[in-house]
Description:
Layout: H1 2-39, H2 47-50, H3 59-72, H4 78-84, H5 90-104, H6 108-111, E1 118-120, E2 123-125, H7 147-157, H8 161-173, H9 180-186, H10 192-205, H11 223-235, H12 242-251, H13 255-268, H14 274-280, H15 286-299, H16 305-314, H17 318-330, H18 341-347, H19 355-365, H20 369-379, H21 384-397, H22 400-409, H23 415-431
Antiparallel strand pairs: 1-2
Helix pairs in contact: 1-3, 3-5, 4-5, 5-8, 7-8, 8-10, 9-10, 10-11, 11-13, 12-13, 13-15, 14-15, 15-17, 16-17, 17-18, 17-19, 19-21, 20-21, 21-22, 21-23, 22-23
Amino acid sequence: MLLPNRIRLMGAIVLLSTCVPAVGQDAETKQRAKAVREMAKEGAPAIAKIAPYLDDAEPLVRADAVRTITELGTARSIDPLLKALADTDAEVVVRATDGLVNFYLPGYVKTGLAGRLSRVGDAVRGKFVDEANDQVIEPWIEVRPELAPALNKLITGSAVVEVRANAARAAGVLRAKGSVDELLGALRSKDSRLMFESLVALEKIRDPRSGPRVAFLFRDPEERVSTKALEVAGLLKSAETAGDMQTAYARSSSIKVKRAALSALALLGDKQARPQFTAAMSDKDDGLRTAAAEGLARLRDPADAPQLDQCLNDEKKMPPRLACAFGLVQGGRIDLGEASALRYLLNTLNSKAWKGVAEGYLVEAARTKSVRTGLEGIALGGTKDEKIGLGRVLAASGDTDSQRIVEQLSRDPDADVMRESVRALRILRARLP
């Protein structure tokens, strides 16, 4: 009777003895990871000491090394993070990708995919929080040339879709022109996450070659993919896709797709779409009315002025009303009287909810010399928000004559105006020849 019990006891001892080394290894792993974090207290010089841990056998240690190097965040961090992009562990690669972007866009790592990773066995899962993702580096920032090829390998070669999608997002934030072909290739992946992130990246990079090559996605069953493809083609003014845009507008049952298609046609200023613009001015959907007014604005046909005038006077919704004011300005109504369309856009710069929309219209309107001259003449006497907004407008659409005005705004006694105008001045100078 004792024999079976003795056998069970011996088996338990054997099992326990086989677990001890594993427990010990786990403790050693945690100790090495802790050592990495402790080194961070030494500051940037510690990067050289931490870098060898990128070759550690345990992903946990390598991930902590990448996280710590990212937090130290000096130029010394770039080479080790580039090395980590070739790691075999998805978490390490995602953290290294976000760490590289964070060097050029401080704070990115807090909102990137790395902050929302979780492990399910050996797999890594994560969620992109901000699908719109409008983050992008400042135009004057130069990125190390090695980054685009390294990201391209991930976009095309990783077996983990989160890694590919995250690399595509990084390429967009960094304005990586060298990644355009890889991003276009990723549109054929059949994975909506990767396709969407690649489209957003192409939208930020703004290579005109991309426009015609996204048109096949206008019919994609995933709504966010088809609408983003339409937005990209419209933004890049891909005139050869106008027929496909017309088809999407006429045949889609999705109001979001119809809005995107009409907005894209509006960005093209497509004369063939004038009947659609005119008809949509009285549509019950305010998004379509807005796109229609923008389309008429870019056609600049004097015959449309009465319809735009009526819209400005009678429209109750702000988006189409602002679009109608924009249409009148584009049609030549550039006086700055209190009841004028241009003054209405200018006054809207003081609205927290709508100043971004008004600023976008003013940026486009200010590409016309007469409009720009009028805005330059009143910029210094505006309200705080008007000064900030007009500084941004002149940064995007100004010329050498605008530089004097923005320089004066950069010396404004208001700290917010001064800070934003200094940034505007840098953007303007980066644009000028």
